[in-house]
Amino acid sequence: MAKDGAYACVSTSKQTTNQQVAALQVAGCFTEKMSGKRNDRPQLPAAPAALEPGDTLTVWKLDRLGRNPVHQCSGSPGGAKPKLDDEQADAGRRAHANGESVAALACVHHVSRPTIYRMLEGVR
């Protein structure tokens, strides 16, 4: 059975989540008092992690998930899936060490050149 979850957040200890929680109470609400600039807010990944497929996460306002779209998109647990798996990354590093260009590797793996540069730096 699908269920709903909610997340409320304020930036400082002088603020309260009371208004948000009152509006979200029926959904069951995860709350915390931490700046939206921080990526280490423990309740932020806990809220969607508690949901199952078909469930809904409700927030007071979209900006409660983060200060900007980058924070909002990266606030999901696990982040984006790697473009290259470990085997592809290892093969790409070997090919680059043997003289293969970044552009050629990007073409072969169907990814962007910045993705290849991140792979070469050890970040996928």
What are the SSEs and their pairings?
Layout: E1 4-10, H1 18-24, E2 29-33, H2 43-49, E3 56-59, H3 69-74, H4 86-97, H5 102-109, H6 113-120
Parallel strand pairs: 1-2, 1-3
Q: How would you characterize the overall build of this protein?
A:
By secondary structure, the chain is of the alpha/beta class. It folds into two domains: 4-74, Rossmann fold, CATH 3.40.50.1390; 86-120. It has six helices and three strands; from the N terminus they run βαβαβαααα. It has helices spanning 18-24, 43-49, 69-74, 86-97, 102-109, 113-120; strands spanning 4-10, 29-33, 56-59. The chain has a three-stranded parallel sheet, with helices on both faces. Strand 1 (4-10), helix 1 and strand 2 form a beta-alpha-beta unit. Helix 5 (102-109) crosses helix 6. The longest helix has 12 residues, at 86-97. The chain is elongated. The relative contact order is 0.14.
Keywords:
124 residues; alpha/beta; Rossmann fold; 2 domains; three-stranded parallel sheet; 6 helices; 39% helix; elongated
Q: Give the CA-CA distance, first to last residue.
A: 36 Å
Counted by DSSP, the helix tally is 6
Radius of gyration: 20 Å
CATH level 1 name of the largest domain: Alpha Beta
CATH topology of the largest domain: Rossmann fold
Tally of individual domains: 2
CATH architecture of the largest domain: 3-Layer(aba) Sandwich
Largest pleated sheet: 3 strands, parallel
Strand order of the largest sheet: 2-1-3
Which percent band covers the strand fraction? Answer: 5-15%
Count of strand segments:
3
Low-pLDDT sequence parts: none
Helix and strand content put the structural class at alpha/beta
Report the mean per-residue pLDDT as an integer: 78
CATH superfamily of the largest domain: Resolvase, N-terminal catalytic domain
Taken in chain order, the helices and strands follow as: EHEHEHHHH
What oligomeric arrangement do these chains adopt?
Answer: single chain
